[in-house]
Amino acid sequence: MISPKLVEVGRHLNINLVTNSEVKSIEGEPGNFEVTLTNNPRFIDPDICTGCGDCARHCPASAVNQINKGMSDQKATYIEYAQAVPLAFAIDANVCIGCGLCENTCLAKAIRYDDKIRETKVTVGSVILSPGTEGFDPSDLDYLGYGKFPNVVTSEGFERILSAGGPYFGHVMRPLDREEPKSIAWLQCVGSRDTNRCGNGYCSSVCCMYATKEAMIAKEHIHGDLDCAVFNMDMRTVGKDYEKYFLRARDKEGIRFVKARVHTVNEIPETGDLKIRFADEDGEIKEEIFSMVVLSVGLTIPDSAVQLAKRLDIDLDQYNFAKSDPFAPVETSREGIFTCGVFQGPKDIPGSVTEASAAACLAGADLSESRGEDIQTYEVPAEIDIEGQEPRIGVFVCNCGINIGGIVDVPAVQEYAGNLPNVVFTDSNLFTCSQDTQEKIKEKIKEQNLNRVVVASCSPKTHEPMFMETLEACGLNRYLFEMANIRNQDSWIHSKSPDLATQKAKDLVRMAVARAGTLKPLKEKVIRVNQQGLVIGGGISGMNAALNLAKQGFKVILIEKEPILGGFALKLHHTIEGADVREYVKKLISEVQAHENVEILTDAVVTGFGGYKGNFKTELAVGPNKEKRKIDHGAIIVATGADEYQPKEYHYEDDDRIVTQVGLADILEDKGASDFKTVVMIQCVGSRNEEMQECSRICCQNAVKNALHIKRLNPEAQVFVLYRDIRTYGLLEDYYTEAREKGVIFMRFEDDSPPDVTTSSGHITVKTKDHILKRDVEISADLVALSAGMRAADTKELSGIMKLNANPEGYFIEAHVKLRPVDMPGEGIFLCGTAHGPKLISEAISQAQAAASRATTFLARPEIKLSAIAAKVDTDHCVKCLSCVRTCPFDVPVFNTEKKVIEIDEAICHGCGACAGICPRQTIQLGFYEDDQIECKIDALLAGGM
Amino acid sequence: MGEPAIKLGGKKKSVFMDKVRELLPEGGNLNLCLTCGACSSGCPATGLDGMDPRKFLRMAALGMDEEVTSTKWVWMCSLCQRCVYVCPMKIDIPQLVFNARASWPREDRPKGIVGSCDMALRNDTCSAMGATEEDFKFVVEDVLEEYQESQPEFKDMKAPVNKKGTQFFLNQNSREPVTEPDEMVPLWKILDLVGADWTYGTKGWAAENYCMFLADNENWKHIVEVKKKAVEDLECKIWLNTE
């Protein structure tokens, strides 16, 4: 997944990659920093090195492979991994014996034994620190046996075991005897949530999900039964759709989630198996034997990053994460220096990618005046005219590590492809999407005069644009490309029948080759972009998105359906850190109002929508009189927000002593807590149930925040929190610890036995069961606070008008969870805040900045190319039956009453092909998917004799 | 189960655990329990009397003082600290156990421990087995002589008693001189081979302190003071306690 990003960064003209280097100092001020770099010697010139690997093959000196966590060796001349960017080797001076073999071997003459530490300087306007994380090293936790028992590995090590580029090439084996494990235990919170043995009081946020994922993948890769057990304290699957994944793992795949922390791991010396003793949920002592134990190690900040922060005078918190303000999440303590990723705080990939865009937004805002200077533009070479040429097809078959190659017989598929008509060249690669393979493809296109290219690998959805660019870079029209998806549609789903999978791969390749022969060069239309943005929703997210887009120099129209700006935040008081939400919103509103680039329309709703990316036209009804207004804009940011669920449970509707957490915060703010002797909080009200499977992410911290507030106001008050899993992820864990320290009692209940609340005039009685003592508990309380989950704002009408896709919970869907977390599937449309899913204010702010950043990359181009995949009508043969008009989900085909013809505007056409399919006279053709280009695939498939 | 429901809520009462928290640095972290069960999974006393460290702490946290101060389990715990070793919150459960022991009337505490503590109080040797100053001196000298003779390589080995101004004052568990005198010798040999400057004392030589296990704070303190005085009287620099 990271491969296409690596390639994109590596080939981007305006990214100057400086590897093997450290920042020594940064002088100057925002807009004009002078950065001094220490460039460490690589001993191989990366500009000359071709990455062929001959040096490493001849190198006689071995070293431990750190990337593979010591489970394999590498040479003194090495590259970290096969997809590394830049693809250039290096010499490990600590291991090199100076024999000179590599220098003699290297045909490119890239070896530089006399390479030295150098110092270079660069001038930049802004700085982003993203030094990343390293997994906690559990060697000092002697009771877990890491480093002592070979079959105890860290989760990082297990990731390598699962990886095709790992020590066992993706075959799941245990280190001791390379046997396939029959059972694996994951031990959670190793190096996290532990103030005793490692001092990391925080939750690492990612381990619950990655352990679940690793168990799922291990089960997929293993031939036969595999027992997977995840020993945890709380399962923290708080991200969007994560709860569903967890439930699938538990209920469908049979992965066991055991609520227990293990004391000691012991090895059975005869077998290398590992014995684990734990107290189960009923307090019974159980003993289990596993083939392997995976320690789910937490995220830590490497010492090199701590030293970097010291040199740059960046404030760190007690755990060495960069200090930030909840309302300025990606800003460091030093102006003009921004941060993102785990250095900002523990987080997962979608959060990191989002924050990266946010940091880019702020870094870019400081430089927006000089946008476009100091950059290089990409000159696409003149297109080679292939008119009249016979098809010369090159087929590149991908192993995708072992994703494909582990199931499908790739050499056989390659050989088969070589015998297909028009195929003049074939090749196979470990990863066809890697940087080096792109270079290889280019080379082969030129060398073999290829005029069509077929890649048999994965999904065109993620990889087709990249391969198309590779074609363009050597003068081939990008539409002379075809993919056969032999991974998602083949090896992944037929992993149990490799022979049939190989046969199917041949079929798919034959079909792709047949279609490739029919492809023709297509021209893409260039259109102008209206450089104005529309932001829908005037809450914290929408205002931040609007403000940041405005700061980038673009005009923005911000619309809000209510008469005032502020959104749901107007109902809140303080963040868990104690920051004043109302003050912030007030300040934000006045900043948005004061910005010359922002026009605010309150009491405004969308009534109509048309146009296409770069040229949208939105109709609004504005103000009490519903005045009509039409807006032309190039991009859209959707920030329609969410609300608090209004409970039907626990007598909320008929007793005013039963409130939601938002209601409790109001009470604490207005009246204090002196009246309370006992307050009970109930978690997961309206979340994680049949009606709403998902976790609402923020309610645990909300309960902890209010519990702490009560304890501050009235230390004598007793607070009980009845929960299912406490999900105070990341740095929020410190507040959970503080709440317990202050005497708040947390009691777990199971989802099938929720607490029972009865009210009487005197007090409220809450009945539940203590999860440790397994005894009934009766709490008599003055007030019950329900941690009501989030509900997406009702946007049915809006999404109907604007054709925006939402998930069953009503949250809008992003284009790709990890790679494009704030883009919507339609180009030029972006997403942020709670409209995307439940999140904290700080997270909503960074996401809003990210959306502004992504909108900026779109609006900054004065013109864009449209895809040539659009429908065309042959008006001479059209009978004007209007089937296409009725069928198009986007209302694109129209009947021109003057010219009496059907017209399809290729700028608005989404290229879905529905019209082409429905047209009874076959007078509509979809570019790149013309009838014969599809029929030939079917013919090719049938020719195989099905 | 048939057990009555645990009643919680209402006005906050002062509970046993709060008192223990006040006695301990950082309150022994007693409030911080994550109920993860690492303590119980590693505790040798888990399951005895239907109790384990996590349940015991939980009862204390819920203010179930009657159960906490009456369970016999506190006498089954050996205060070994395996629970604290792995507890992510470093909760001092042994201290909670100790203070629960202290809440028992002395006469109700286990007879063996009470007897051993009382015996140690009888004379200044602090021996829980009642060995006197004379007995100890005699046994040491007798055993030493025997080994000097039978093992010529240790003919110059020493086991000084009441030697003034040595580097180490060595304690000795009573069980050895009284029932297994030969067991004292390996340590003497080590000390001899490394050339340590050490001595026993006729007063305060017994290493064990059952008054501590009994949670009899006053007599625990008394025993420690007797031993301390013995060390000081001989002007030794370091007190080596082998227990």
Question: Can you give keywords for this protein?
Answer:
heterodimer, A: 946 residues, alpha/beta, FAD/NAD(P)-binding domain, 7 domains, five-stranded parallel β-sheet, 47 strands, B: 243 residues, mainly alpha, 2 domains, 5% strand
Structure description:
The complex is a heterodimer of chains A (946) and B (243). Chain A has 946 residues and is of the alpha/beta class. Chain A has 23 helices and 47 strands. In chain A, the strands form 16 sheets. A 5-stranded parallel sheet of chain A has the order 10-17-11-12-13. Chain A has a 5-stranded parallel sheet with strand order 27-26-25-31-42. Chain A has a 5-stranded parallel sheet with strand order 33-40-34-35-36. In chain A, α5 links the parallel β11 and β12 (227-232). The longest helix of chain A has 21 residues, at 498-518. Chain A starts with a helix and ends with a helix. The relative contact order of chain A is 0.08. Chain B has 243 residues and is mostly helical. Chain B has 2 domains: 15-104, no CATH class; 112-240, no CATH class. Chain B has helices spanning 16-23, 38-42, 53-61, 65-70, 82-86, 93-102, 111-122, 133-150, 175-179, 185-193, 210-213, 217-233; strands spanning 6-9, 168-170, 198-199, 238-240. A 3-stranded parallel sheet of chain B has the order 3-2-4, with no helix packed on it. The longest helix of chain B is centred in the middle third of the chain and has 18 residues, at 133-150. Chain B is elongated, with a radius of gyration of 22 Å. The mean pLDDT of chain B is 95. The interface between A and B is large, with 48 and 40 residues. β39 (776-781) of chain A pairs parallel with β1 (6-9) of chain B.
